[in-house]
Design brief:
alpha/beta; eight-stranded parallel barrel; about 25% helix; globular; hydrolase activity, hydrolyzing O-glycosyl compounds; GH13_cat_dom
């Protein structure tokens, strides 16, 4: 949807907090105070991964703890007890919690060894035995002949130790969006090790200073792109072990690359045997019961963010990925679905404030997001959080202390939609430059945005990448640099570069690229499924196209993308602020100069000049007769110099002149 922003969304109003925002901030502070009062501190509360699930104690005993309020009894079973479903019962505690203590063996070794297969047995009120995976499981794995994942006890003797500190937070954020499993030309699932050895060096060479990893949280269905999470604390075993992922993150840090996790807290897989759904045998537990707990389009379960234990689970999940794996921040998926009871379904947001405040807003979700951002930014000041929100919710990227939700950036999702619309519907001669610039720059002032021409959404089967929209089937036959370019390839290559550079320069305060698109990857993305014969042909990225021996023009697009990032790194346009607050333009040989800065005055301020010659002040809004302060000498004469300077519409003018003015406006007439 090309929703863009409403007319008044680009305007920043300095009016304090709205009524609804003030109420949300009050509810946030109340929830935070209750949390700190009940749990001692939010630091301890959000480290609950150190006390739930299974924990090895100093003497090698094992302590198990779960929250299963609907269970009548709870047992542990697995390889260690020959799958006896009742020999190791948990003890029921207060508030639906259960505990089990296993002393060490006689030889002082833990009672359960590393990589032992485990299951929880939940006895329901109806007397049914359900086999479940601990919600806090750190590693899950599916055997080749099994339909579901198993809980694998992960407690290596020599765990990986991070060697490198986190990089300093980038001033200009240039994100390489990546999926580990498709990061290879081979028709197979790629690994963390492959990504570490072969992809991270490319990201560094391309000038990206941040990698955003998708599909890391364990998900039973590979084709879900990682957005149907089954095991929230487990790194996907498809790509390797937890230690392999830690090595990937540590290597990225050694290269100065920030690493973000694509975190999914907006919903969860509806799987029961290997997911959170009906964990304790009830329809609720971690989720709302009834229709509110089911997403009508995604077929997934929706969290009850008001629940104390759900809060513990999700906030601790953020801390787990920050502490155990040393991620540097998160892209929060599905934020639009969280913000509203209607989940954004069949909504076309026009920018009217009534769309963002009212009974349709899910206050519990908003308070949860405020808590998430508050805790992350308090404990990790350099942490980066990005919201995937298509609605344009006001204050989403304002600090929590100012009544905002606390995100650092939102994805500027209208921009890729605009480019696809143009390429699908318009001839080159019909492109509206004003509309393009409006879409690129129409975003909430004072709230950070990530601009991008295309992401993984545009690469999925059923859509096309920009390169494929531009060059289509000729990409398979006419990309050789040894033959002259056809008109289609010529047009496609030039527009591919221009679209990406324009988006990079105007589209936001950060920039994002999906892996492979930097060099115009020719194919869409389609994961193995019954409909394609379980094929991996399109579930890969063909980095082999960049081999110099292939003499393909993909290397030229790669080189441009690299130099575009390196140029930004030198000049920093993503992080630049229009600090002078000066407007200059010429009309009918009259030079208009406006200084809107609230406190700065300027002397010897160079501006481009049209006609060569002498200029004098003819109208000064700061003159005393107009109620001004009379700070300018209207008899001063200003002479042009033969020094070129960039003027209106970034056009270089052969002459320029220096002027001086206060916090005022003036008209300079030749």
């Amino acid at each position: 949807q090309d929703q863009g922003l409403g007319q008044d969304q680009g305007l920043e109003q300095d009016q304090g907090l709205g009524q609804d925002q003030g109420l949300e901030y009050q509810l946030f502070t109340e929830r935070l105070s209750k949390l700190e009062e009940a749990e001692g501190s939010f630091d301890d509360f959000t480290r609950s991964y150190m006390s739930y699930g299974v924990q090895r104690q100093a003497n090698n005993s094992l302590m198990f703890r779960e929250w299963a309020p609907g269970a009548q009894a709870l047992f542990l079973t697995g390889d260690f007890n020959d799958w006896n479903s009742t020999s190791h019962p948990y003890t029921k505690k207060e508030y639906g919690k259960w505990e089990l203590y296993l002393p060490p063996k006689r030889d002082k070794a833990p009672a359960i060894e590393h990589e032992t297969k485990l299951k929880l047995v939940v006895l329901t009120s109806e007397g049914e035995e359900l086999f479940r995976i601990s919600p806090w499981a750190k590693y899950c794995h599916k055997h080749v002949d099994s339909n579901t994942y198993d809980w694998i006890h992960w407690d290596p003797i020599r765990p990986f130790l991070h060697q490198h500190t986190r990089p300093k937070r980038p001033r200009s954020l240039r994100i390489y969006e990546a999926h580990v499993g498709i990061a290879s030309p081979a028709e197979e699932i790629a690994t963390y090790t492959n990504f570490t050895l072969n992809v991270l060096p490319k990201i560094k060479d391309l000038g990206y200073n941040c990698v955003q990893l998708m599909a890391i949280m364990e998900h039973a269905y590979y084709g879900s792109f990682g957005y149907q999470v089954t095991n929230f604390f487990a790194a996907s075993s498809r790509f390797g072990t937890p230690e392999d992922l830690k090595r990937l993150v540590d290597t990225a840090h050694s290269l100065g690359i920030t690493v973000l996790l694509d975190v999914v807290h907006s919903h969860a897989s509806s799987n029961t045997a290997d997911g959170l759904n009906k964990f304790d045998g009830t329809d609720s537990c971690f989720f709302h019961s009834g229709p509110r707990g089911h997403h009508p389009q995604w077929g997934s379960r929706l969290f009850n963010y008001q629940s104390w234990e759900v809060l513990r689970f999700l906030l601790s999940n953020l801390r787990w990925w920050m502490e155990e794996y040393r991620f540097d921040g998160f892209r929060f998926d599905g934020v639009s679905s969280m913000l509203y009871h209607h989940h954004g379904i069949a909504m076309s947001f026009s920018g009217g404030y009534s769309e963002y405040f009212g009974m349709q807003v899910d206050e519990d979700s908003i308070i949860h997001l405020m808590l998430s951002n508050h805790i992350l930014h308090t404990l990790y000041p350099d942490c980066i959080t990005i919201a995937e929100d298509v609605s344009g919710m006001p204050g989403l990227c304002k600090p929590v202390k100012n009544g905002g939700l606390g995100f650092d950036y939102r994805l500027n999702m209208a921009v890729p939609d605009k480019w696809i619309q143009i390429l699908k519907e318009l001839k080159d001669e019909e492109w509206d430059m004003g509309n393009i610039v409006y879409t690129l720059t129409n975003r909430r002032k004072g709230e950070g945005s990530i601009g991008y021409a295309e992401s993984h959404d545009q690469a999925l089967v059923g859509d096309k990448s920009l390169a494929f929209w531009l060059m289509d089937k000729e990409m398979y036959t006419n990309m050789s640099s040894l033959i002259p370019m056809t008109p289609v390839i010529d047009r496609g290559i030039q527009l591919h570069k221009m679209i990406r550079l324009l988006t990079h320069a105007l589209g936001g305060e950060g920039y994002l690229n999906f892996m492979g698109n930097e060099f115009g990857h020719p194919d869409w993305l389609d994961f193995p499924r019954k409909g394609n014969g379980e094929s991996y042909q399109y579930a890969r990225r063909q980095y082999n196209l960049l081999d110099p021996d292939n003499n393909l023009r993909y290397t030229q697009l790669y080189a441009f993308d690299r130099d575009m990032n390196l140029t930004e790194d030198k000049y920093g346009w993503l992080a630049s602020q229009k600090k002078d607050k000066v407007i200059v333009f010429e009309r009918a040989n009259v030079m208009f100069v406006f200084n809107f800065h609230p406190s700065n005055s300027y002397s010897d301020y160079r501006i481009a000049a049209g006609p060569n010659g002498k200029y004098r002040i003819k109208l000064d809004s700061d003159a005393e007769q107009y109620g001004g302060h009379g700070r300018l000498d209207t008899d001063t004469e200003f002479f042009t110099e033969q020094e070129p300077f960039k003027g209106v519409n970034d056009q270089w003018q052969p002459h320029s002149l220096k002027v001086g003015y206060r916090c005022s406006t003036a008209g300079w007439v030749g």
